[in-house]
Amino acid sequence: xxxxxxxxxxxxxxxxxxxxxxxxxxxxxxxxxxxxxxxxxxxxxxxxxxxxxxxxxxxxxxxxxxxxxxxxxxxxxxxxxxxxxxxxxxxxxxxxxxxxxxxxxxxxxxxxxxxxxxxxxxxxxxxxxxxxxxxxxxxxxxxxxxxxxxxxxxxxxxxxxxxxxxxxxxxxxxxxxxxxxxxxxxxxxxxxxxxxxxxxxxxxxxxxxxxxxxxxxxxxxxxxxxxxxxxxxxxxxxxxxxxxxxxxxxxxxxxxxxxxxxxxxxxxxxxxxxxxxxxxxxxxxxxxxxxxxxxxxxxxxxxxxxxxxxxxxxxxxxxxxxxxxxxxxx
Length: 330
What we know:
Helices cover 38% and strands 18% of the residues. It has 330 residues and is an alpha/beta fold. Helix 3 (121-136) packs across helix 4 and helix 4 packs parallel to helix 9 (246-252).
């Protein structure tokens, strides 16, 4: 009997060791990587399985402003939603690349340090294109299964990648448009100002929008809250971003492309009742629309839509997790 027990324990240990070895092979690693875009060195995190056969891989593009590869924002704090998204995708067998866009994280301004006002939407799109090429060139990437997941303003760069016909542009298999811009940048902000501000502040803001669009300049001494959104330091970037029409970009996404679009009833930057023009423009794609309930702009359950709650440590909404379950692999 003692011999039998000893043999049973030995077999259990061998089986356990075998499982551990197999699990070790399946571990995901995060490598610090870099690539260049028009003289700018961009740093990022490549999350993958070492020595894995080519498989699906996703490029993650963060929100606008000073938001880094992980979704952390210099003003709001450590949000971490893009890091969480990378982890969710790896749980579903998908490698990913997330990166510090120009002006954020380790990338910084680089050659733009002496001319920061030259940083506009075109620079961000150039960085996204370089990131997509880098990801497609990795040995663990199936070039026919490259996807892009982007949040907020990042979605315009994602759609630009999908419609890029440059000779060296990788084919984008699918798009995740998470809480996307449904219209021009300044129009979306205006809608939020209209709902929050006094008539006097609204008129001041409308005059500022008109000045940016007609002259490319901003008025002096905007009220503090508005000045944080629009100021001489970001006027060029805002002007360029505002010229981009997401609806026009959506119409250029190749027919049949699997597209996941999320919106929310409480995210005032991506309210579901504003998405119809964008949804209509994507009708030629294989579109899945998921209307989230009580989810804020950083993809977490929070019906208050309060900026004060954005950096609270919390998981990504289970509603989005379910959406990913139904979309990854399409």
